[in-house]
Protein: Alpha/beta fold hydrolase
Organism: Streptomyces machairae
Amino acid sequence: MGAYVEANGTTIWTESRGEGPGVLLIAGLSDPAEAWQAQLDGLSDRHRVIAFDNRGSGRAPLPDGPMSVAMMADDAAELLRAFQIDRAHVVGFSGGSAIAQELALRHPAAVRSLVLMSTWARADAYFTGMTRFWRWLVAQAPDERAMLEAFFLWIYTPRAHADGTVERFIQETLAFPYPQSAQAFQRQLEAFMPHDALDRLPGITAPTLVLAGERDIATPPRFGRTVADAIPGARFEILAGEAHQPFQESPDVFNARVGDFWREVEDGMLPN
């Protein structure tokens, strides 16, 4: 069920499914709540799963002034309060994983557990150069299809390009009635790129699972390993054969691993 929610001084579109312990899904660059459709459907059998549009994605407006990861983390905390969820299992993907890190640091009481997919704690020169190209790409591509075809080379596996999965995602994006503007893409990117939580990650106290795609060229596994090494007790796992966005490419694999982790937390096998 979709609904607008007033949170942290803005209006945010949310999608909610199921009943049970609360789950908050935080999307990455450009993705609206609908990017999590396979999780909204597949993980809501025993959880209350909530996804939302980050500022500048989908139906959520850009702020008038500067936008930051800290601001979006506060948005997420306010959303949980609006849904009357005291503590949630939080899943953050890519740019959303930066938001999830900040949420766990700024609002630790709100985070029951943390899953960080395709994450990083501090950008290196390669990552910075790659995102500078993305900023140029969205403004200079001849049309939206051309931009997506180029951008998705960093996001999905060769398998997904060969079997028609990427073409399906492109068609869905082009048909989406709330397209993201080039300005919104750039401003989200500008908010994500200064993210640097490496020295603060030891302050995260929630049980944490860090997942990396073996074939991810945008946020390669070495980034995730650095994050996991910095968070006390965090687990680090590599998803064989996967790239940057496995929750879309291989949702059954992703959902099963995340669901198992939540069960461990809820059964008291991990401190929470």
Summary: DSSP finds eleven helices and eight strands in the chain. The mean pLDDT is 96. The longest strand covers residues 10-17. The first helix runs from residue 37 to 42.
